[in-house]
Amino acid sequence: MVKGANVGLAELSGDVGSVMVRLSWSSPSGEGDADVSVLLLTADGKVRGDGDFYFYNNPVAADGSVQLLGKAPTADGNEDRITFDLTAIADDAERIVVAASRYEGARFSDLHDLCLTLADGAGDSLLRFSIENPGEVGALLFGELYRRGGDWKFRAIGQGYESGLAGLATDFGVDIDDEAETGEESAAEEAAAEAEQSDGRAVPAPESQAEPLPAIPTQATGERPVESVPTTPTAPSVPSASPGQPVAAKAPSRPRTAKKKVTLPKVAKKSLAENDSWRVARLFPASALKSDRERETRATSVLLSVMTQVPEFGRRLTAAFGAPSGRMETFTEVSLPNGDTPRRPDGVIRVERAGKLWTALVETKTNGNSLKPDQVQAYADIATRRGYEAVITLSNDVELDGSPLVEVKMDGRRKHKVALWHLSWAEVAHQAQMLIRHEGVGNAAHAWLLQELLHYLQHENSGCHGFQNMGPAWVPVRNGIDDETLCQGDPRAVDVVESWERLVRQVCLRLGGELGQKVLPVQRAKRGSDPRTRRAALADRLCTDGRLEAELRIDGTPGILALCADLRTGKLRTSIEIAVPEQGYPLTWTKRLVRQLADAPADLHVEALLTGQAPGPRGTLERLRPEPADLLPKDGTPITGFRLSLFRGMGNTRGNAESGFIRSVDESVDRFHAHVVVHLDRRTPSAASPAPSSSSRTREAVAAG
User: How many CB atoms lie within 10 A of CB 260?
Assistant: First the structure.
């Protein structure tokens, strides 16, 4: 693409529900770098709040719509990657601006090969935009995604800001602390003075031939934003050499060593052991652990040490907690003064950037042990007094929105605020698996370290197995449903709903790590946005219907995977609804579907979905294979789609044993995806095609797991 051009994403690919943007550059010295940022803008060109500004201290959106993944090695150096879930972007966010900024007075003119690429959900590259001669600017708008007629389009911008990140963010309505963003107060003051001298205007780009570039607001002036930009760019004010004075030449580019991402092979190498009783030597042994204290100490040390040795992994875990990108060091069993009795948090994480430290205290629990509120409160108080930024708790439990695992009181009289974050061991394993199985890391040693960490976490004696217990309310609620004595408003039903939501989120993490794709739970908009109110309503439905339901959206699949646990019948149902093609005949559709499911289980239930919500013909795959026409309605009612379902008995106990409910849910989802979903056509149906019956409900808002 060229500067100012625009294109509709739907014209390039049918799989643009989620996209990945990559920003890359190089420098002659090999040391030049920049920070990526994203802004969600409303129709007036402003953010709704500071939370719509995503950068190194705010890299992930709560709903999963925006995720700054950090830097990854490439053949020419490295690149910054950003994923966008366009289906989860709020309706009032009409533009998504992708930018980058330099720090400590550096300018983009010192960087070479500035480039933006955009790929669809399948990873196929759709477009490329190279920026030539960016000028003496400290911040640069690479491009933007914007809505037109219900579809998303991309516009190549390539405009710069002399005033850097502070000027860019302020113009779009973000209230930022200049010192925090630039790393040094003097740099912020220089940027402000420079903006005042030059009116803070962005360096404009040529006018688009198809559509005008968006109006870029002005800084520190009372002028209205221009509706379009001149065709001749205004050169930024830069010092010029005196007559006769030689101009310093740019240093020549030097070749850089190509870097490859390393992922573990899918097929393990043949073992040299004489027999199966020989065990491979492990870096982190877990078999000798005997007590919970030993497990907590070992798990903390193993995790924190790998975070420092594998920067890609450490950054992925700390980015969501507001940590900057910088040099990381970790410590265990640190003694901190606390009155007469010193406190010893399980660990400390410190990240240095631009001479400043970001510090977090770490409290770890393993083997299903719960966090102690008084212990976490003491660490929060210490962090507040010492000016630390965060307290991170780590356990097998999964935290839910609106339902924190630990209630901590913060002293509102203190200016310094400490953030309390929680991390599940399942999330740790998910991030390690994504890197070593799918996305790759910088070298083979990093991949091996992550593999050793993953083996340790999955060892039965490590105590780091994720959510594994439905809680004490599980058995009473099941009994109450069986004998019809469970009443609406029973708090035990709410406890079961919360445990179910934790289990679903963990299923998403595990399945996403295995597939290398984004797997997220789906929330229907009509159920409300307040988490507590929504869970109370679901608990009331559990009391009346006796069912727990969830929906999972898996990137690359043609529909939503639905999961239903019927506590009255003791059965689990996994299903998916797929729309019919835009063209063709019903008999052709049914024959094609049966051919796709040639290797699916014979007990798979197939149901035709008809217009008007009427029940359609149905049958098992075993019966339909010789007679696909049995799926056609006798009266000729139009078919809008098909529903595919598998049933199995669910476990009775609340844990993860052979007869446990949690294990039965895991096995049901795995079986359905491996034997049914993977065989379906991965193409996304067109918006113009008829949707299945349940798709006529309110569009879903996807929540991150």
Answer: 12
